[in-house]
Amino acid sequence: MPNEMNIEINGRGLRIAIVVARFNEFVTRRLLEGAVDTLTRNGVTDSDISVSWVPGSFELPTVAKAYGETGQFDAIICLGAVIKGETDHYEMVAGQAAAGISAAGRETGVPTIFGVLTTDNMEQAINRAGGKSGNLGSNSAEAAIETARLVQAIKTN
Ligand code: INI
């Protein structure tokens, strides 16, 4: 039988930073609410959650990396909404946000979660921000807790 990592999925004691884009704030504020709600339901205390707003999704990687480099956080959650109908540089913003967030996680070794909606229109974004298709912020919080616990378990074994 292979050795499988057994991790307990709870947030007790985890320190989480959330970076959230102000662009399309109507949507991203709901992602933030979903993330904070899921973190606290899983045992993360309010005082262990730090939130920073940035102008847009393009700025998420820079601030995520700065948080990661402090060594004071177990995971970083990046939240944004890039909506196709409202920009012609959609692909640049979405692509750079994804690549930069991914790089920040690899470079710092701190789990850095991609909670950026990329949709064709506002309706789809609202559906994924607490509407009929769930809340990506909440899913991102679950991913943060699980990945942070896994990294902790690997490092302490
Ligand atoms: N930022 C977003 O988060 N979502 C968008 O849909 C968007 N549009 O449409 O352009 C957007 N642009 C701003 C960008 O993220 C930067 O803040 C800006 O280019 C300054 O660097």
Give the secondary structure arrangement, pairings included.
Layout: E1 16-21, H1 25-41, E2 49-54, H2 60-70, E3 75-83, H3 90-108, E4 112-119, H4 122-127, E5 129-131, E6 134-135, H5 136-156
Parallel strand pairs: 1-2, 1-3, 3-4
Antiparallel strand pairs: 5-6
The structure holds 5-nitro-6-ribityl-amino-2,4(1H,3H)-pyrimidinedione (INI).
5-nitro-6-ribityl-amino-2,4(1H,3H)-pyrimidinedione binds at residues 21, 23-24, 55-59, 80-83, 86-87, 89, 93.
Can you give a write-up of this model?
Helix 1 (25-41) packs across helix 5 (136-156). Strand 1, helix 1 (25-41) and strand 2 form a beta-alpha-beta unit. The model has no long low-confidence stretch (mean pLDDT 95). The chain is of the alpha/beta class and 157 residues long. It starts with 15 loop residues before the first strand and ends with a helix. The strands form two sheets. Strands 2-1-3-4 form a four-stranded parallel β-sheet, sandwiched between helices. Strands 5-6 form a two-stranded antiparallel sheet. The chain has helices at residues 25-41, 60-70, 90-108, 122-127, 136-156; strands at residues 16-21, 49-54, 75-83, 112-119, 129-131, 134-135. The structure holds 5-nitro-6-ribityl-amino-2,4(1H,3H)-pyrimidinedione (INI).
